[in-house]
Specification:
Elements (H helix, E strand, L loop, with lengths): L1 H21 L1 E15 L2 E10 L6 E11 L11 E5 L21 E7 L2 E7 L17 E10 L9 E3 L3 H4 L1 E5 L18 E3 L6 E7 L8 E11 L2 E24 L13 E5 L5 H4 L2 E6 L4 E8 L6 E10 L4 E10 L5 E7 L6 E8 L3 E9 L4 E11 L2 E8 L7 E11 L8 E9 L2
Parallel strand pairs: 1-11
Antiparallel strand pairs: 1-2, 2-7, 3-6, 3-8, 3-9, 4-7, 5-6, 9-10, 12-13, 13-14, 13-15, 13-16, 13-17, 17-18, 19-20, 20-23, 21-22, 21-24, 24-25
């Protein structure tokens, strides 16, 4: 009796080992690139891969999944799901609801407690897609789940189990298989289910991606003249960014560091309705970035250093500081006026910098104070670097000359007239 029992156990183990050895995976079905793209939108990609040479032609499938969050219910009244146009590797039929004959129909649906994606394929195997072995396979498409009440959905998905009940994945035969092992009465163009729950299986997986980040390339507050500043910044990637806000403060000896400055004025806010501010709406979650600009911020006083703080608001209502930049507002003066050559024999060029937009006069005095010539008279001169040439007349006497610059402020009564004098020496 004991011998019979032992033989039975050995036989059972042998059969189990044999069955296990014969088990094989035919394909991978993967939920990939899951991310919150907007405050109420979850994006993801469905991929299928062929990992066995036991099949060739992809026929059809039904995939079902839900949020991987305890106590969170999926409902047609609360959620919607859609396929992003042009995101599939499949030739999609143009008429929804019509069964395809030589293309595919992809139908996403919201059901009580779950989402489903049904893929109906061509009638004949010649029109079926063939996923290549050893590659990432084919993309069924990118899909977007939205909450209708604009709440934030969970950020993880899970396949529904048991797989043999909730999932279906079939391939199409290109010949009769009546005499093939384990396949009975199957003819060309029949659809064969890959997962029988015993020996052939489909692997259902979800790809965990690194958490996305918001990365900033630069943030710059640039003085452009007339007490105006241009604010610009560029991101290289964004994560859960609803939009950007810029606030302003004044740097003082009491608060020397930008992160200590009291930021009392909101300069730019994506939540405002005007086009200038609405252009600051973020990309949500994106692996690529964007260039942003705000033109212009007008300040009240010269001679002060204004600091700006760049903030973004995420989908969860958090305000996150990205960067600071400070810029001093000049007193509308002429600086760094330099002649070359000096001394000179015939002509010389004077390079100068105007710290702001001004109306500019320039004339030349000789050693007695007499005006020899006018170089500029009432010329509008924008902020920046400029140059002017002085050509001495053929009968000009050797000696010292002064080039006098007078800058008049433009529409700013708080600024006094600015002067600069450059000394020249003429040698014959």
């Amino acid at each position: 009796m004991k011998i019979k029992s032992l033989l039975f156990v050995i036989l059972f183990l042998f059969i189990a080992i044999e069955l296990s050895a014969q088990r094989q995976f035919f394909a991978n079905a993967n939920l990939d690139s899951i991310s919150l793209s907007k405050g109420n939108q979850l994006e993801f990609v469905v991929r299928i891969e062929r990992i066995s040479n036991k099949w060739t032609y992809f026929a059809n499938a039904t995939f079902q999944f839900a949020f991987d969050s305890a106590g969170y219910n999926v409902s047609p009244d609360r959620h919607s799901i859609e396929l992003v146009p042009g995101s599939s590797d499949l030739p999609i039929v143009a008429i929804p609801g019509v069964l395809p004959t030589n293309s595919y129909l992809v139908t996403p649906n919201v059901l009580p407690g779950r989402f489903s994606i049904t893929i109906a394929g061509p009638t004949n195997f010649e029109n079926c897609i063939v996923p290549q072995l050893g590659t990432q396979g084919i993309r069924i498409g990118k899909f977007i789940i939205k909450t209708k009440d604009n709440t934030i959905p969970p950020q993880k998905l899970r396949w529904l189990e048991p797989y043999v009940y909730y999932q279906a994945f079939a391939y199409k035969l290109d010949r009769d298989s009546l005499f093939l092992p384990n396949l009975y009465y199957a003819q060309a163009n029949d659809n064969i289910e890959m997962d029988d729950g015993e020996r052939s299986f489909v692997n259902y997986s979800t790809s965990d991606r690194p958490r996305p980040q918001t990365l900033l390339k630069f943030f710059d507050a640039e003085y452009v003249g007339l007490k105006k500043l241009r604010l610009s910044w560029e991101t290289t990637s964004e994560a859960y960014v609803d939009g950007f806000i810029v606030v302003r403060g004044i740097r003082t000896p009491e608060y020397p560091s930008p992160n200590e400055v009291k930021y009392t004025d909101t300069i730019a806010d994506y939540q405002r309705s005007d086009p200038q501010n609405s252009a600051l709406i973020g990309l949500g979650t994106s692996s690529t970035g964007k260039f942003y600009s705000f033109e212009y911020d007008s300040v009240a006083y010269r001679g002060l250093e204004y600091c700006y703080k760049l903030i973004y608001k995420d989908f969860f209502g958090n305000l996150v500081t990205l960067a600071y930049d400070c810029e001093r507002i000049p007193n509308s003066i002429i600086t760094k006026a330099t002649p070359s050559p000096n001394p000179f024999s015939v002509s010389t060029r004077i390079d100068y910098i105007v710290e702001d937009d001004v109306i500019l006069d320039a004339f030349v005095n000789d050693f007695s104070g007499r005006i020899v010539t006018h170089l500029l008279k009432g010329v509008y001169t924008p902020k920046g670097q400029h140059s002017i040439d002085f050509l001495a007349s053929y009968n000009a006497q050797e000696g010292l000359y002064n080039v006098v610059f007078i800058a008049y402020p433009i529409d700013d009564p708080t600024v006094e007239i600015s002067r600069a004098i450059v000394k020249l020496q003429l040698i014959r």
